[in-house]
Amino acid sequence: MQYHGPCTRNLLFLHPWFQVSILFSGFRGLQNTKRGSYWPAKEIHFQATHSMPPEKIEIFKSMESWAEKNLLKHLKPVEKSWQPQDFLPRADSEGFYEQVEELRERAKELPDDYFVVLAGDMITEEALPTYQTALNTLDGVRDETGASLSPWAVWNRGWTAEENRHGDLLNKYLYLSGRVDMRQIEKTIQYLIGCGMDFKCENNPYNFFIYTSFQERATFISHGNTARLARRYGDNKLAHICGTIAADEKRHEIAYTMIVEKLFEIDPDTTVLALADMMRKKIVMPALLIYDGQDDNLFDNYSAVAQKLGVYTAKDYAENIEFLVGRWNVEGLTGLSGEGRRAQDFVCRLPARIRRLEERAQEKANKAPAIRFSWIRY
Ligand SMILES: [Fe+2]
Ligand SMILES: [Fe+2]
Q1: Where do the annotations place Fe cation 2 binding (predicted)?
Q2: Residue 101 Ramachandran class (φ > 0 left, ψ -120 to 50 alpha, else beta)
């Protein structure tokens, strides 16, 4: 069976995790060949690798003392970090059952669609092994041993350790809520990690740090919106959970955008070319290959609900690009090569082009038929 998935049908349904991606053309090369039950449920073909010229590795080596001084301070020490237990009923306390009961009562007030988005967000967070793997494919900044003391590697592991709490907290919350089919969700996580993801960054840290800047900002917006909606439905405790995760994502966004800002300072031509390249290739969502064993269009369907609910919309997406292009002062870059100037021009015109697509995206999402998800107990 050939599966030419998400991108051709619902080009305009944007979701935090897929962000920049699927706006301009289809994501080619996504197939489901079902070679055997052990094989990934979905495959990405045409994967490119090692696009960064080897001499550029020196740039990242030369940035190590800068990274140690400026990047690592954006990680929070473990002793000062929140843990999932801070937001959940304590199983070792006397009031455990009452607290669970209260949590479940509050959860009853939230609509099914809200749980679709929350489950999809949690599943995406739970595929963290894929993202740490991706970080460690990067030339010049990968963790060479698994315990390397290079500041890049210390960041990679510290970031992963912080992110690990996000899936953990949402997973436990969803389990206790009684609103979801946990077995279906757990299967989806297993499928997704088994599929992996090609982020189209080609082992190139210029590309990847641009990708993560978009990604972290998008997750900040998305978790912020699930917090806002929870509050609207009267569940302030869930709002606090989502808001706390959003605050982590904001800190990560600040760190990654700062790396890219530094790259623009040291090597503006390569950086603006990388930015244009990532925009043209489309920044693909980590959960693009999401599959629950039943729904071949699960990614589309989940993204449509996120758009419809206003958790992450085409408007957010356009604003995200606009913000970052402004944050890096792409318009004000000088001394670029001809190719660099063309890339600059392309990137600066992008937000306006995307804005023209916003309305269509919302209209399409509003008209999308109601889909039943295997994750939800209807
Ligand atoms: Fe996260
Ligand atoms: Fe994050």
Answers
A1: 163, 216, 249, 252
A2: alpha
Report residue 20's pLDDT band, with 50, 70 and 90 as the boundaries: very low
Choose the catalytic residue: 125, 198, 202, 253: 125
Neighbours of 279 (CB within 10 A): 22
Q: Residue 222's closest CA among 110, 125, 316, 314?
A: 316
Q: Is 319 a catalytic residue?
A: no
Burial class (CB in 10 A: 0-12, 13-18, 19+), 243: middle
SS3 180: strand
76: which DSSP letter? P
Using alpha carbons, select from 361, 221, 349, 328 the residue that is nearest to residue 279. 349
Which pLDDT band, with edges at 50, 70 and 90, does 34 fall under?
A: low
Q: Is 82 a catalytic residue?
A: yes
DSSP per position, 341-363: HHHHHHHHHHHHHHHHHHHHHHH
Distance CA 44, CA 48 (A): 11
Q: How far does the centroid of ligand 1 lie from the alpha carbon of residue 364, in Å?
A: 28
Please choose, from the candidates 304, 320, 300, 178, the residue with its C-alpha nearest in 3D space to the C-alpha of residue 249.
320
**pLDDT tens digits, residue range 214-223?**
999 999 999 9
Q: Which pairs from 218-221 meet CB under 8 Å and 24+ separation?
A: 218/16, 218/17, 218/19, 218/312, 218/316, 218/317, 218/320, 219/16, 219/17, 219/246, 219/249, 220/246, 220/249, 220/250, 220/253, 221/16, 221/312, 221/316, 221/320
DSSP 1-30: ----HHHHH-TT---TTTTTGGGSS--TTE
List the helix and strand counts (H, then E) for the chain: 14, 2
Residues in the chain, how many?
A: 378
Q: Is 253 annotated as a binding residue?
A: no
Ramachandran bin of 75, using left for φ above 0, alpha for ψ from -120 to 50, beta for the remaining angles: beta
Give strand ranges (E) for the chain. Answer: 30-31, 43-44
Task: Pull the structure tokens for residue 112.
Answer: 């099914």
**pLDDT reported for residue 285:** 82
